[in-house]
Amino acid sequence: KQIKKKIIHKAKIKRNFYKTLEKEGTNLETPTFYREIFEGNNNSFDHDTKIEKNQKAKDMDDIPSPNYLKDKCEKEISLDLKRKDIKVLQERERIQREKLAEKEEIQLHRQKKKAYYVERNRMKKRLMKCNSKGQPYMKSRIDQILSKIKEKY
Length: 153
Fold this sequence. Notes:
Elements: H1 2-24, H2 32-39, H3 46-62, H4 66-127, H5 138-152
């Protein structure tokens, strides 16, 4: 409630202020000497502006036409875009090659792992063979140990 009262009070004060200004007839525009400075009507600046215009004209002779610059900029932009497109395509191809290489590596690893477990299960069955009385065959175990020793040396 207090905030609303303050806002209303400020609005009334502003309205009354502008009404009194209208009654007095004062202009809210900028003074004439400021307008002359900003518009460039002041004679003291004419000489300086002429010199500046001459220098700009000389500089403009050295600078190629805007159409030429515009065409050149457009060509440079199009070349930059083409280069960026080529870089993007090369980056995508590189990423795809990396993904394919990674997939092949994973597949090769899985195949090796599968072959290892197949061989392991085959050896396990051979080593677990038993005779009719339940005694393990020592021949297969001894052969396995000898083959491991031969592989190492």
